[in-house]
């Protein structure tokens, strides 16, 4: 046996340690087959691992990955690294097989972003089926990759997310898809509205009865129907719409056919009526022409034209008799005219004689010319009246055919005469009217006892009376006689009564002169009244009357003396008022000359100055009427000019404010009251920046604008109160819900129940005021979860230790491991001891070092190695061969 071992190669030595040392001495060139055999067939995992590392051939690593479970993870690291680095030593078959069958998700993700071949990357992303990865690849990829990824972005509904990153053709395709999606969402409703509208309009045509309008609108609606894109509707909707369209179209066709028949019948009637009207018009025109020719023949006194006219009249009669409308009323009337013309033709000789008579009478009337001499007026009017009467007598005896023309001539001559005589007649009528009016005034004054005035008015009456012709004087002769006799009687009476009254007035003046206190205005009125009463006493003829008149003048002057000073003061005040008004006009002119075109012009100050001047004008004091009239005219001209500028300014402001009122009114219909209120606040600021709109419109506009503002703010307040109430109710409801979950907290006895409770609480959408309470409740649930989990974990270890110490079966919870492991119980125990940092047996220190390196390598690869997972795997794979002492040391540590 000893010699056997001496001649056996070290790599075949039964002891693993010897074989392990022999691996280092083997050459990768000449001993390649041996190394391959050791890497794939040696019983020791460490030797296989070392041989694989030494050969470092990817094919061997691939074989180890597929058949060596203990080294599968290590082999996979080598293969995956080669795949990621695109190592040329790794064949395409192995690479493809690994990627298609064995590659983990993380590797596929890395390949999806490192591979250059677009289709391969798309294939990997499609296999991964991860929307976030597809989105990332699209955003980071080139235009070609984006185009290749378009089916995946559509499948995972990423079009809108990646649109901003899309390039070229991919962007166009996505925009088209988004547009198609939008259309697919919007168009069915739009198409349904279009179909309903067109069908409704087609159906409504059945209620109309104008064939041309129906036919035109029906064709337009049918064209509109053809343009509707029914492709956006589903098959059932298209079928339903087609059925409705077919039904309505058939009914409409029947209606159109009926209206067409009626329309054609009406057109036939209209054509017949038009033919009738044309024939009547032709006949009437021919008869009118004949009438003109007949009148011409009579006017020219030409008997020779009678025969030709007779033949022409026969033709007209035949035309009327042969007409298909001979019985209509219009042609019956025309036949009567023809009959009258026939009778007139037989009377042409008589008509010629009568025409001569009327022409002679008209010539006599024409010879009487209007006059402008008042003395000849009566004679001329009498002659014209006699000649006009003679013409009227002859005119009434004329045949009907001659009356029209002769009557027109008579009227023209009469009008011509009246126009020529009108100025003199108007002047006479005016004199007569004035005389009658003054005569009535004289009668009224006599009745009132105002005799002196009556004498003066009577003199005016005489002036008008003497301007009248004899004929017109005769019309008021009676009035003239009665007035003259009445005034003569008054003169006689005045002479008798005036003397004592004059003495009374002089005595009254003496009494008034003795008064101490005098009211100037009242005294002036009294003086005026006394002067009137004196004048009413009549003319002064005798020496005594003249002496009384002189005394009256002297005393009345003394009586008026106190008034002169008063009126002088009044005159001075009027002069001052005049100067004040002149100054106001000058200031208003200066205001008129100001330029208002500048953007920063102060309209408020301009209007204030205008109003101040207008107020000063109203309170400037009284002036003489003639002076005031002149000043007021000048003031009004300047005032109007300035006022028009202000009106234009006010109107412009009123228009701007009216627009603000309309905009404020529009906010009443807004559903977003907060935005409406913000808009109203902006409008209020704009209102403040706009000037005065005039006294009439400013108040009205402001009240309307304010009403709209108040209405919107009131609606917002109501909405706010309602929301506040609803929020309060909702908050109370959510508070109760939160309290219910809080009460369940103490009823939960397991981690699973607490997890379920936490999920339900986290799903609650609470108002902001309760979110802190929600967070506090979640924190409390998390604390209880940790406490229960810690308690359960501690109990698990207590139960495990108890079972091991008592030699009882292990708890089932430790045997339910997730996944499998290629590690041996010894490796797992070493790892447990490494994790809890206790020493391993002395003979296993080398293996412990190997495990530490493997754990470190796994950690660098991103794998997490937990104590619980190692313990669970150890208990699962070493149930019958537990190293109880070492295990209890680990657990109690």
Description:
It is a single chain. By secondary structure, this protein is mainly α. Helices cover 80% and strands 0% of the residues. It has 36 helices and no strands. The chain has helices spanning 2-7, 16-25, 32-41, 45-55, 58-67, 72-85, 92-102, 105-114, 118-128, 131-140, 143-148, 150-155, 159-162, 168-204, 211-227, 235-300, 305-322, 329-346, 348-367, 377-397, 400-448, 451-466, 470-475, 477-513, 520-535, 543-593, 603-618, 625-666, 673-689, 695-745, 751-762, 768-806, 825-836, 845-860, 867-877, 884-892. It is elongated, with a radius of gyration of 65 Å.
Please render the helix and strand layout as text.
Blueprint: H1 2-7, H2 16-25, H3 32-41, H4 45-55, H5 58-67, H6 72-85, H7 92-102, H8 105-114, H9 118-128, H10 131-140, H11 143-148, H12 150-155, H13 159-162, H14 168-204, H15 211-227, H16 235-300, H17 305-322, H18 329-346, H19 348-367, H20 377-397, H21 400-448, H22 451-466, H23 470-475, H24 477-513, H25 520-535, H26 543-593, H27 603-618, H28 625-666, H29 673-689, H30 695-745, H31 751-762, H32 768-806, H33 825-836, H34 845-860, H35 867-877, H36 884-892
Brief account:
The protein is mainly α and about 900 residues long. The chain is built from 36 helices and no strands.
Highlighted features:
893 residues; mainly alpha; 36 helices; 80% helix; elongated; disordered N terminus
